[in-house]
């Protein structure tokens, strides 16, 4: 199967239009809510009372109990974090904006995985859950046709790239002499994989695409390589917690 082929983009755009007009959920539909507001706290010195997860010695522990990782932003650079019961977001004032979402596979999703196989399931989850979440907040979202399946990462992972007009978290850091007539187009890389019965979605903005303004000269291939390398590097810092076997 060719991932993110041009024909699939037409289907995706149709799904976006539907998602923007009506959002429906069911018990088996994960509500990702990357854009849901949540209180933020400085990192890594955040106090546990201000977040749902826990911070200890610069390490963030997810309230899901599924993983922990070293906080990937610095307080000295304006680093802060916010979380919900399933999504944690790390950002700073320069180029870092990272969200990590994690969902337990219920019976329906486990059945979908068994029927589709891992590659197709990750593609399905991206198009049916992740992209509509972004589309519910931003119009004009586009999927770039150069996603890749990484068989050597966490037993198989899907990396994709999207552009979002007006979707940057760094628009206030963009150097400009006059107000732009069109919204800046943000670019995000997304990495999906499954570990210990949870599906992970890591989403990361390429901040310098906005903050460097007219000085930014990277090609699409260079952007993709940079985002892919950053996503893989971050994924490799995550420690997964396997639930004890039940008898």
Question: Could you explain the architecture of this structure?
Answer:
- The protein is α+β, with helices and mostly antiparallel strands and 247 residues long.
- It has a domain at 40-105 and 138-240: Protein Transport Mog1p, Chain A.
- Helices cover 26% and strands 26% of the residues.
- The chain has five helices and 13 strands.
- It has helices at 6-21, 107-116, 118-135, 208-211, 220-235; strands at 40-42, 54-56, 59-61, 67-70, 80-83, 87-91, 97-104, 142-143, 148-150, 157-165, 185-195, 198-205, 239-240.
- A hairpin with a 5-residue loop joins strand 3 (59-61) and strand 4.
- It is globular, with a radius of gyration of 18 Å.
- The model is unreliable at 1-27 (pLDDT under 50).
List the helices and strands and how they pair.
Elements: H1 6-21, E1 40-42, E2 54-56, E3 59-61, E4 67-70, E5 80-83, E6 87-91, E7 97-104, H2 107-116, H3 118-135, E8 142-143, E9 148-150, E10 157-165, E11 185-195, E12 198-205, H4 208-211, H5 220-235, E13 239-240
Antiparallel strand pairs: 1-5, 2-3, 3-4, 4-13, 5-6, 6-7, 7-12, 8-10, 9-10, 10-11, 11-12
């Amino acid at each position: 199967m060719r991932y993110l082929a041009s024909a699939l983009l037409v289907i995706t755009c149709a799904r976006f239009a539907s998602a923007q007009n009506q959002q429906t959920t069911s018990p088996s539909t994960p509500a990702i809510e990357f854009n849901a507001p949540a209180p933020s706290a400085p990192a890594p010195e955040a106090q546990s009372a201000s977040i749902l997860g826990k911070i200890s010695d610069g390490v963030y522990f997810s309230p899901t109990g599924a993983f922990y990782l070293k906080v990937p932003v610095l307080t000295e650079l304006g680093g802060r974090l916010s979380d919900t019961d399933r999504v944690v977001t790390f950002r700073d004032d320069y180029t870092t904006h990272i969200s990590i979402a994690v969902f337990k596979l219920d019976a329906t999703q486990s059945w979908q995985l068994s029927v589709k196989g891992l590659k197709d399931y990750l593609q399905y989850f991206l198009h049916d859950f992740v992209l509509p979440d972004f589309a519910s907040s931003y119009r004009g979202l586009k999927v770039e046709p150069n996603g890749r399946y990484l068989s050597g990462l966490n037993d198989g992972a899907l990396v994709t790239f999207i552009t979002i007009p007006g979707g940057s978290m760094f628009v206030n850091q963009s150097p400009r002499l006059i107000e732009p007539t069109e919204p800046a187009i943000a670019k995000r890389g997304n990495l999906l994989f499954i570990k210990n019965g949870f599906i992970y979605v890591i989403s990361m903005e390429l901040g310098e695409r906005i903050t460097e303004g007219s000085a930014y000269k990277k090609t699409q291939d260079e952007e993709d390589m940079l985002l892919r390398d950053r996503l893989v590097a971050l994924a490799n810092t995550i420690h997964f917690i396997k639930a004890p076997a039940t008898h």
